[in-house]
């Protein structure tokens, strides 16, 4: 049996620059750290059965987020650090105390 742990792979310091830092630019075409190895970035799996909805899924999420960010301000309590629940996919253990305020 082979077990793959994306959380671990996605935090390997020998492959990612400052892996724990929120740094969306690491995925941009200039740096493309996720392309250094075919199995380094695996939210959509990899190899022959890699998700066929990858590009559609990314566009869909960006479209939804775009609409939400235009309509709401998202905040969490100051200094908040999200406790992770790794039971299945990584999700907030405390259900995430996020506040949404409608923008004008
Ligand atoms: C954020 C959204 C999505 C995530 C995170 C995701 C993730 C995954 C993962 C992890 C796999 C398994 C890949 C593997 O075995 O290596 C997979 C397979 C698959 N996904 Fe997605 N997926 C997403 C959206 C979609 C969408 C929108 C579609 C269709 C429009 C889709 C269709 C499929 C199909 C058909 C497979 C099976 C591919 C095969 O076995 O050959 N997925 N997906």
Features of the shown structure:
104 residues, alpha+beta, binds protoporphyrin IX containing FE, 2 helices, two-stranded antiparallel sheet, 2 domains, 4 strands
Q: Which word captures the global form?
A: globular
Low-confidence stretches: none
> Helix amount, in percent?
10-25%
Oligomer description: single chain
Class by helix and strand content? alpha+beta
Bound molecules: protoporphyrin IX containing FE
Largest sheet: number of strands, sense, barrel closure: 2 strands, antiparallel
The strand order across the widest sheet is 1-4
Number of helices: 2
Beta-strand fraction estimate: 5-15%
Using only CA atoms, what is the Rg?
16 Å
Give me the strand/helix succession: HHEEEE
Question: Can you count the beta strands?
Answer: 4
Whole-Å distance between the termini? 54 Å
Overall mean pLDDT = 93
Domain unit count = 2
């Amino acid at each position: 049996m082979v077990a793959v742990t994306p959380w671990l792979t996605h935090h390997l310091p020998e492959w990612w620059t400052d892996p724990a830092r929120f740094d969306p630019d690491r995925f941009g075409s200039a740096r493309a750290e996720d392309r250094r190895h075919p199995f380094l970035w695996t939210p959509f799996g990899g190899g022959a059965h890699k998700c066929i909805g990858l590009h559609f899924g990314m566009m869909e999420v960006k479209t939804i987020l775009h609409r939400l960010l235009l309509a709401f301000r998202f905040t969490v309590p100051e200094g908040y650090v999200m406790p992770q629940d790794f039971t299945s996919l990584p999700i907030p253990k405390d259900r995430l105390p996020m506040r949404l305020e409608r923008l004008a």
